[in-house]
Amino acid sequence: MRLVDTHAHLSDLEDREGVIGRAREAGIEAIVAVGGNLETSRATLSWADDYGGYVYPALGIHPTEWMGDDVDKTLSFIDEHIDRCVAVGEIGLDYWNREARKSEDVRARQRDIYVRLLGIAVEHGKPTSVHGRGAWEDTYGLAREHGPDRIIFHWFSGPLDVLERVLDSGYLISATPAAEFSRDHRAALAEAPFESIVIETDSPVSYHGKRAEPADILLTLRFLADLKGVSEEEVAEVTTLNAERFFGL
Ligand SMILES: [Zn+2]
Fold first, then answer.
1. What's the 187 CA to ligand 1 centre distance in angstroms?
2. How far is the CA of 200 from the centre of ligand 1 (A)?
């Protein structure tokens, strides 16, 4: 089986050799490593330096990780290094974030940073991986207005009417191990055709109390196969082709 983990925060993992060794054993042929601020974007590039042709970097500013950062400096860093990356990400909006819930200023700042990053993606001809927790409508609307043609709505768990517009626009959604238990995520994955789905781990997001790593893509694969009532091989084949085409791997 050939698999692609389309969204992993390798910068937050240690034991590089072990992580990559187990990923290869699981059948992963490529990992798209995403950044979320200046520090993790730098670390993401360092992983890609160590594992060229296997770890493909993406740089971004995560909607909950810019507070306390010099955002202009991070944007310049991304702009400067994005040509060696396969995507801009992780970027987006998160209205469930504690500060964002309390303050419209924070939500407005998230939108401002998101739009600037969508602009970098368009300018450099890169696709993007977006996060929209609690903000799917705005995440979609701004992407449609300012973003590139190729967008993955990472871990989509929004309303089905937004999903319909996401799919009609030709964008993709990604499945995570939460496909086992998240009702909204499952509903979206059940609705979306296979041609519109890629798989990922969002490592090191905690899963059943354990920090996930790319090899846990096998969980995503199993849950998605169960949900769709098809074989894991079939899920692997289609989602890997989708990922290769999307990122130009
Ligand atoms: Zn993520």
1. 20
2. 9
CA of 7 to the centre of ligand 1 (A): 6
Contacts of residue 122, defined as CB under 8 A and 6 or more positions apart, other chains included, come to 146, 147, 148
| Phi, psi at 144, each rounded to 5° | -65, -40
CA of 92 to the centre of ligand 1 (A): 10
Return d(Cα 5, Cα 200) in angstroms, integer. Answer: 4
Q: Give the pLDDT confidence score for residue 42 in this predicted structure.
A: 97
Rounded to whole angstroms, how far apart are CA atoms 53 and 42?
A: 18
Reported as a single tens digit per residue, the pLDDT across 61-110 is 999 999 888 999 999 999 999 999 999 999 999 999 999 999 999 999 99
User: What residues in the chain have per-residue pLDDT under 70?
Assistant: none
Going from the Cα of 203 to the center of ligand 1, the distance in angstroms, rounded, reads 7
Q: How far is the C-alpha of 242 from the C-alpha of 249, rounded, in Å?
A: 10
- pLDDT tens digits, one per residue of 107-127: 999 999 999 999 999 999 999
Cα separation, 210 vs 220, whole angstroms: 15
Q: What are phi and psi of 218, to 5 degrees?
A: -65, -30
Tell me, in angstroms, the distance from the centre of ligand 1 to residue 155's CA.
Answer: 9
> Ligand 1 centre from 205 Cα, in Å?
8
Distance 37 CA to ligand 1 centre (A): 12
Q: Which two tokens stand for residue 4?
A: 């692609």
Q: Could you tell me the distance, in angstroms and rounded to a whole number, from the CA of residue 162 to the centre of ligand 1? A: 20
